[in-house]
Amino acid sequence: MNEAANRIKARLDGSMPKLAFVLGSGLGSLVDAVEDAVRISYAELPGFPASGVTGHAGELVAGRLSGKPVLILSGRAHYYEHGNASAMRPVLETLKSLGIETLILTNAAGSVREDLAPGSVMLIDDHINYSGLNPLIGEPSDARFVGMTAAYDAGLKDAFEAAARKAGEALPRGVYMWFSGPSFETPAEIRMARVLGADAVGMSTVPEVILGRFLGLRIAACSVITNFGAGLTGNELSHQETKDMAPVGGKRLQKILEHFLAAY
């Protein structure tokens, strides 16, 4: 077990969850619902990234949600911050060594569909790695050849849809396309994304999915839609829009997560 895992384990006094979340931009309010919360700054954990993105707290929170023990990563490292697609590898390896079995990823994303409006939530059914980057480049073992046919666990997707029905919230499935960022996409790139089969675009999550599957974790992911893609409205895009709209969809996602956890 690595040093970060040892420090986390010592703080949790032997109570080890099997489920972990990674929260995207503007979605940190979920940690406010955690009962008996133990908060550990990433700065205290060797190998954990110092996020330079507003809307990412940069802390690990452990406790109970809907009565279930969970670990929450409030903030992530992005490729566009460091030029390193594997920046989250030490974090996910730490989770794996702690006994985490299931990883739920969330992000803020732009919609490329007129019927997928800001404030809605999309269950990621599959992804397109348009960046061409991969966090396993340089991995020396044959384990680097990770199958991605079922990257997003079918049972978890079904469980999320059941939770959404109980919560009375819409949860359409869709394909997420990863762009490297940090600049937003052009209108031409959004038109291309639609042609290629994407439903939403964003700058995160895919590296963690690849790393999670490499580590043998079950994966599910949801996008909170914060804006329409470039060219769909005529308006310019901004990170402020992401921060403003993420809490709107975040409230819907939190309701879904509560029902998901109650049945988990």
UniProtKB/TrEMBL annotation:
Protein origin, superkingdom: Bacteria
EC number(s) reported in the record: 2.4.2.1
Domain SIS: 8-170
Pathway: Purine metabolism; purine nucleoside salvage
Membrane-spanning parts: none
GO MF annotation: an example: purine-nucleoside phosphorylase activity
Record key words, sorted: Glycosyltransferase, Transferase
InterPro entries, alphabetized: Nucleoside_phosphorylase_d, Nucleoside_phosphorylase_sf, PUNP, Purine_phosphorylase, SIS_dom
Binding-site residues for phosphate, renumbered to this chain: 25, 56, 76-78, 108, 204
Binding site for a purine D-ribonucleoside: 185, 227
Pfam families (UniProt xref): PNP_UDP_1 (PF01048)
GO CC annotation: cytoplasm
GO BP annotation list: nucleoside metabolic process
Binding partners and assembly: Homotrimer.
Physiological role: The purine nucleoside phosphorylases catalyze the phosphorolytic breakdown of the N-glycosidic bond in the beta-(deoxy)ribonucleoside molecules, with the formation of the corresponding free purine bases and pentose-1-phosphate.
Protein name: Purine nucleoside phosphorylase
Species assigned in the record: Phyllobacterium phragmitis
